[in-house]
Amino acid sequence: MKKQGIEFETETKANRAEKKPDGIHVEIENVKTGEKRTEVFDRVLVAVGRRPRTDGLNAQAAGVHVTERGFIPADLQQRTNVPHIYSIGDVAGNPMLAHKAMKEGLVAAEVIAGKPAAQDAVAIPGVVYTSPELAWVGLTEREAREKGYEVKTGVFPLSASGRAMTLQQTDGFVKMVVEKDSDLLLGVHIVGPHASDMLGEASLALEMAATATDIALTIHAHPTLGESVLEAAEAAHKQAIHIMNR
């Protein structure tokens, strides 16, 4: 995105915006220093997030606990504090994702039917459908270290992918976060074309407690974008054959 001329400012907030003949004047403040300045833009996109639509539900009348933010918490079987009432989807809490909601709905239905089900996913994948796409599942390198893991990483740039070259979309990479001693896969992060489609293998690997070796020993079709996951696993072992091992 920086190559496209997009500038990023972190630890920054927009205090106010005023529309004037020459554009929209936005007061920007650095939250660390308190320094303020005014910038002029053609357009302003305001993205304030989402909130659960539980206003007016009167769930409290049934004894169901509702948080200050409007969420209805649930346990691993999607039960609320009232055992015969269930909560799924966005109202059950973050992450507010359709695939997470679907899994919760399946769990709730199975529990109601008397089956021993639970929402016990190792990790919930996430995707940002930009161009290039961003997709991830599991821990980031920083999160893994904060949890006390000693980690190793493998990064494979799509600039070394034959399939990405044929698509003329070589911006991006696959990064694998692995526990150093056990070789256990902790997280996978992908930036690039069809990143969302490539994430399924990583999610399955996490659920099965796979190691980077398991992925590296799995033959992937060539040339494909999916083999970039294999290449990242090999890079974690410093055995990559299409990039330099650092």
Automatic annotation (TrEMBL):
<dbReference type="InterPro" id="IPR004099">
    <property type="entry name" value="Pyr_nucl-diS_OxRdtase_dimer"/>
</dbReference>
<dbReference type="InterPro" id="IPR036188">
    <property type="entry name" value="FAD/NAD-bd_sf"/>
</dbReference>
<dbReference type="InterPro" id="IPR023753">
    <property type="entry name" value="FAD/NAD-binding_dom"/>
</dbReference>
<feature type="domain" description="Pyridine nucleotide-disulphide oxidoreductase dimerisation">
    <location>
        <begin position="124"/>
        <end position="232"/>
    </location>
</feature>
<protein>
    <submittedName>
        <fullName>Dihydrolipoamide dehydrogenase</fullName>
    </submittedName>
</protein>
<dbReference type="GO" id="GO:0006103">
    <property type="term" value="P:2-oxoglutarate metabolic process"/>
</dbReference>
<dbReference type="InterPro" id="IPR050151">
    <property type="entry name" value="Class-I_Pyr_Nuc-Dis_Oxidored"/>
</dbReference>
<keyword id="KW-0560">Oxidoreductase</keyword>
<dbReference type="InterPro" id="IPR016156">
    <property type="entry name" value="FAD/NAD-linked_Rdtase_dimer_sf"/>
</dbReference>
<keyword id="KW-0285">Flavoprotein</keyword>
<dbReference type="GO" id="GO:0050660">
    <property type="term" value="F:flavin adenine dinucleotide binding"/>
</dbReference>
<dbReference type="Pfam" id="PF02852">
    <property type="entry name" value="Pyr_redox_dim"/>
</dbReference>
<dbReference type="Pfam" id="PF07992">
    <property type="entry name" value="Pyr_redox_2"/>
</dbReference>
<dbReference type="GO" id="GO:0004148">
    <property type="term" value="F:dihydrolipoyl dehydrogenase (NADH) activity"/>
</dbReference>
<comment type="similarity">
    <text>Belongs to the class-I pyridine nucleotide-disulfide oxidoreductase family.</text>
</comment>
<feature type="domain" description="FAD/NAD(P)-binding">
    <location>
        <begin position="1"/>
        <end position="105"/>
    </location>
</feature>
<keyword id="KW-0274">FAD</keyword>
<keyword id="KW-0520">NAD</keyword>
